[in-house]
Amino acid sequence: MAEGSDDIQALIALMARLPGLGPRSARRVVLHLIRKRSGQMTQLARLLESVATSSRECLTCGNITDRDTCAICADPARANGEICVVEDVADLWALERGHAFRGRYHILGGTLSALDEIGPEDLGIPALIDRIRRDNIREVILALNATVEGQTTAHYILDALPDSNVTVTGLAQGVPIGGELDYLDDGTISAALRARRRF
Amino acid sequence: MAEGSDDIQALIALMARLPGLGPRSARRVVLHLIRKRSGQMTQLARLLESVATSSRECLTCGNITDRDTCAICADPARANGEICVVEDVADLWALERGHAFRGRYHILGGTLSALDEIGPEDLGIPALIDRIRRDNIREVILALNATVEGQTTAHYILDALPDSNVTVTGLAQGVPIGGELDYLDDGTISAALRARRRF
């Protein structure tokens, strides 16, 4: 037993399964924590316990929250008639960090996949259509990933939306801010050229 | 508040301070854990709490353990007259993974440093000399890092050891297993050439 105690070994094994960590970095993290066992480690244990107990999905949009309704769905200022459809909570977090969107979200929790037997109900698409009808939504922004799966799902939603005066939009495709043309893939360059705009 | 709740944000901030993690990877890890909140996350919280409570330093060698005396110091088979001096618990773990050393350890917990006011007492060097006298040690292996600080500390220990029939050795320096000469630094190549051996 190289690493001190059974619990330490179990902790390293568990840490090594986290995304982006492996056995080497897990050992480093655990040793760092053991050195700070009375402060950082105890605090981390308590926060993990607390978040594990209190976290749940917002009943309206699927966002991670500690209440029935997340802070975004509960904020009356965000009932501006816009709803942004994302694949994942991580995408919602990314959009919120951008501070550009002031409406509400709908989290699909994945993309349509015949192979994995993920259908429209698994993604809450009927619930989305209900929300659009009920909440007087004017614009639906399909902020799905620019992958085949994301775009297939976007087209499915587009077809499934009721005929009404809801505008459906997607994120612009083009050169990322700070991006150098030389390093961009051909598809992005072509898309940016086709969608060129006047100065 | 982009990330769900105050606790989630605090958890991400705490995770981002772990070695090798930053804000982006901390968010990824926390989201992964929230998805597995009833299993992996609760288990991680409990193990962290348990390791934080039970971990302490072995009174003899400084290894991390959950008892007064670590498994290595308690194992009579390892009283073979050899003691291996390392800077850090991570170095002990690395040596144990190599399965080549069957004696006991002494962890310094750092290197001598005038700048940081770390003297021989802070590294337990007097205690090491006591152990060498008391435990009939035949060989002291100074497995310190091949850095200036590590080598300075090694020379200090060498001078401080009592005149006796204790053999003092250091790790061999040379080409790492699987190493390509082309990618090695000049110092290592020169050291390997000077320490060349007959086939």
Task: Please tell me about this protein's structure.
The structure is a homodimer of 199-residue chains. The first copy, chain A, is an alpha/beta fold and 199 residues long. Chain A has two domains: 6-54, RecR Domain 1 (Helicase, Ruva Protein, domain 3, Orthogonal Bundle); 64-170, Dna Topoisomerase Vi A Subunit, Chain: A, domain 2, CATH 3.40.1360.10. In chain A, 44% of the residues lie in helices and 11% in strands. Chain A has eight helices and six strands. A four-stranded parallel beta sheet of chain A has the order 4-3-5-6. In chain A, α5 links the parallel β3 (82-86) and β4. In chain A, α1 crosses α2 (23-35). The first copy, chain A, is globular, with a radius of gyration of 22 Å. The first copy, chain A, starts with 5 loop residues before the first helix and ends in a 5-residue tail after the last helix. At the A-B interface, α1, α2, α3, β2 and α5 of A face α1, α2, α3, β2 and α5 of B. Chains A, B: Keywords: DNA damage, DNA recombination, DNA repair, Metal-binding, Zinc, Zinc-finger. Chains A, B: This is Recombination protein RecR. Chains A, B: Residues 81-176 form the Toprim domain.
